[in-house]
Amino acid sequence: MKLHKEGYAIVAIAVVIWLLANFLVGLTGETVFRVFFLLATLPVLILSIRFFRNPGRKVTAAPRSIISPADGTIVAIEETFENEYFKDRRLQVSVFMSVYNVHINWNPVPGVVTYFKHHSGHFMAAYLPKSSTLNERATTVIKMADGTEVLVRQIAGAVAKRIITYSTVGKPVTQQDELGFIRFGSRVDLYLPIGTKVNVELCQEVTGSQTILADL
Asked: N or C: at which end does the chain have fewer Cβ atoms within 10 angstroms?
């Protein structure tokens, strides 16, 4: 299993702590307790390593389509007012990521980054609608070759404490490029032009960089 670069330091620290803790417990000489501690802590270590896995997917460019920016479940497909950048009504499609999903985020469309802003905020459950405007979040707008702009918003969840975004204004991006990474449970919202043809439905499981969410 390949590890994502955002997990190198955290996984290394987790492994060292795990080894040290088990070494210290081993000094007690209590065999039953040593085995219990090993079996109790090993799943936590494995989960930590698995969280930062990088599946190394092959991404096929689809310039007129919106690819899923993340693994997870579709929790919203609705028209709503986007009040940060567009300040008008947009079609919102949201993907909720549990701690078991791959947490790499991909650019949903090719183009040039025209806007980026990170917002501090709360850490309520990411599946709640109000998390889109109240939680810690990072907003990126990508302008496509035909002038269409797509907004993608990374949102922290109840246990997500850091949003990592590789976006900078003026940077050309492709669908093969990573948008960023969110540590632990979280959500990604897309704001698309009204009338965009959506190819997914509520509660559907989607795969980041692979599932076509919509066609422009």
From this structure: N
Q: What pTM, to 2 d.p., does this model score?
A: 0.86
Domain shared by 110 and 34, yes or no: no
**Rounded CA separation 170/161 (Å):** 27
Give residue-wise pLDDT tens across range 117-154: 998 865 555 455 554 556 788 999 999 999 999 999 99
Q: Active-site residue among 94, 131, 167, 186?
A: 186
pLDDT tens profile 196-205? 999 999 999 9
Shared-domain flag, residues 189 and 104: yes
Residues 171, 124 share a domain: yes
Structure tokens at 180: 């960023």
Q: What is the DSSP code string of 105-139?
A: EE-SS-EEEEEEEEE--B---TTSTTHHHHBSEEE
